[in-house]
Amino acid sequence: MSLVPLAPRARSLPASVRSPGAARLARRALALLPLLLVGAWAAADWRTVRDGTARLASADPWWLLAGLFYTCLGWVAAACARQGALPERLPPGLLLASQFAAGAANHVLPASIGAHAVTLRFLQGRGIPLARATASLALYSLVKPLAKVPLLLFFLAAFPDVLRFGDLLPDRRTLLTVAGGVALALVAAALLVTLVRPLRRPLSDLSRTALTDVRLLHSRPSRVLALWGGCAAAPVLQACVIHAVGAAVGLPLTWPQVAFAFLAAGTAAGAVPAPGGIGPVDAAMVLALAAYGAPLHLATATLIGYRVLTVWLPLLPGALVLSALVRRKVL
């Protein structure tokens, strides 16, 4: 009997044997990647961790505990907003775990790319089609900044004598720069869609899915409340964290002042694509607190403590949850 017909099968056998092992190896590498990124970032920004820990060591522990409680509520608000952007019902426990893990990814990659990537993988793992999952991310990204507008108007109407709106407004040059950047981005997107034909079909399908889901979601009060309420509650809870940390270190500002300063600073500097908003938002927030008369060293200590509670403290647990979700094939 000739052995020639068996040669192709003998060559194909190792590939079939190797493929499960390669898949397991790739999944283990993906599970370890969040921890490696956390370690690299901690090494690069070790001074902030050290200074923040030293500041918080002498702060009021009860106020810090309140800040940690508001931080945990922020993940619940994010999970509610993600559910509100989808018609399908998602498992609450896994959704909350995915948003906790997405927080860790969000502080490593800029412009919320990490959080959106984790959420997209989670939605696809739940059987959500790619077009609908992408449309939900787009809707969430659109509602998130729009939900700040009624909050700002509420603060202006409710606290007209306390808030110094003029001190927190960007100057004319900054406004023109932001407007020019937005206009250029819109023109570039239009040209890209016009000139690159392969993008037209996917974008057309995505637009139709998004419009259909928007009409469907806004016909269901529970989804409207979850989406808009979650997006509006998230910045309020972050402001509560800053106020709690400020009270712990002795910052002489009221909650309305801190909340409005955070909303104004986040709106002004949130367009800069920094990981988790770290950098531009922090600088704008320190300036906003100083505009209310807060001492600069206390404003800086407040922001360092805020980042420790919202970034560094949950970063390692979030990376571990992200790794666990990858190992269990949830992501």
From TrEMBL:
Signal sequence region: none
Keyword Transport: no
Entry membrane topology: Multi-pass membrane protein
Compartmental location: Cell membrane
Residues spanning the membrane: 62-81, 146-163, 175-196, 225-249, 255-274, 281-298, 304-326
The keyword Transmembrane helix is assigned to this record: yes
Keywords of the record: Cell membrane, Membrane, Transmembrane, Transmembrane helix
Full protein name: YbhN family protein
Organism: Streptomyces bullii
Species lineage: Bacteria, Bacillati, Actinomycetota, Actinomycetes, Kitasatosporales
